[in-house]
Design a protein that fits this description.
alpha/beta; Rossmann fold; 2 domains; globular; binds nicotinamide-adenine-dinucleotide; N-(1-d-carboxylethyl)-l-norvaline Dehydrogenase, domain 2; 13 helices
Length: 300
């Protein structure tokens, strides 16, 4: 099996590693605009491509794991892009999170080449990417989904084919991330308040996680990032903002009020303004810590 992989960042590098060590031993051709990301994965057996076009020349399946839809457009439709070399019957699987509208536009252009596209965004963060247990929410042609199923089982655990209409996966994912971003903002506020009120943060979190305040953010983000004071990997604040912006834009188009989402989104903009956009989204807690003069850290 020949798989191409474009976008070897926090998530892509972990997903590539799982492909490389999978039983079917695929040939994995990789491209990223940051050379050191490519070189690190090539040391584990991937093959370096100089352009997205070269990835397409060598791969019947092309996975993209890029930050934004604009990057996706550039990689697929730009100079030396995938579309210049993609062959009939070959498949692009966009596993990043992006705009439902843009993925449909790209799908229409690929259809002229008799190639296929699925949007198959993932959830579960770097933890589940590392263990190959992502949730995958795919949409697009069912026969195309079936052809990709073996790859999905290497990368994920919960695998959904949610619709034959391209873009539905992205719609589900951006709404999911609207909720996640609100929850993360709420738990950051709560943790700072708890510490300011004199509570031991570990004790408070333990009770919250066994009570009705529990969420993915409280279970994973607080112990995994905030308590460790480690924000260098994970899900970047600027990507959290991007997803919430896609969701709130969709809500505006559909005339649906999403007050909480719009408010919480501003925390991630504030992180970007503070030069912390490339850090894990939970870094917003540090903005509140700066204002209140406390640090959310368990007592040793
Ligand atoms: P990242 O920023 O760590 O990695 C993105 C990679 O894409 C980088 O290596 C970058 O150099 C590369 N890239 C950007 N533009 C490019 C271009 N034009 N050509 C080639 N390479 C390019 O991001 P990530 O955390 O790995 O996330 C990737 C996607 O997955 C995003 O859409 C994100 O929203 C989504 N996602 C992330 C997580 C997470 O926890 N990190 C979870 C689920 C989904």
């Amino acid at each position: 099996m020949n798989i191409g992989f474009i976008g070897i960042g926090n998530m892509g590098s972990l997903m590539c590693k799982n492909l490389l060590k999978s039983e079917c031993r695929p040939r994995v051709t990789v491209y990223d605009k940051v050379l050191c990301n490519v070189e690190a994965i090539c040391q584990l057996g991937a093959v370096k491509a100089e352009t997205p076009r070269e990835v397409a020349q060598n791969s019947e399946f092309i996975i993209t794991m890029l930050p934004e839809s604009s990057n996706m457009k550039e990689v697929v439709l730009g100079k030396n892009g995938v579309v210049e070399a993609i062959k009939p019957g070959h498949i692009i699987v966009d596993m990043g999170t992006g705009s439902p509208t843009v993925i449909r536009e790209i799908g229409q252009i690929l259809a002229e080449k008799k190639a296929f596209i699925l949007d198959a965004p993932v959830s579960g963060g770097v933890g589940k990417a590392a263990t190959g247990e992502l949730s995958i929410m795919a949409s697009g042609d069912k026969a195309t989904f079936d052809k990709c199923h073996e790859i999905f089982t290497i990368l994920g655990k919960e695998i959904f084919h949610i619709s034959t209409e391209v873009g539905t996966g992205h719609t589900v994912k951006i709404i999911n991330n609207l909720v996640q971003g609100v929850n993360l903002a709420a738990i950051c506020e709560a943790m700072v308040l708890a510490v300011k009120a004199g509570l031991d943060p570990a004790m408070f979190l333990d009770i919250l996680n066994k009570s009705s305040g529990e969420s993915y953010a409280s279970r994973i983000k607080v112990p995994g990032f905030i308590f460790k004071r480690e924000f260098s990997t994970g899900f970047k604040a600027k990507l959290q903002h991007k997803d919430m912006d896609l969701a709130t834009t969709l809500a505006k188009e559909l005339k649906v009020p999403v007050a909480m989402g719009n408010l919480a989104k501003e925390y991630y903009m504030a992180a970007m303004a503070a030069g912390k956009g490339d850090m894990d989204a939970s870094v917003i807690v540090t903005l509140l810590e700066d204002i209140t003069g406390v640090t959310v850290k368990p007592t040793p």
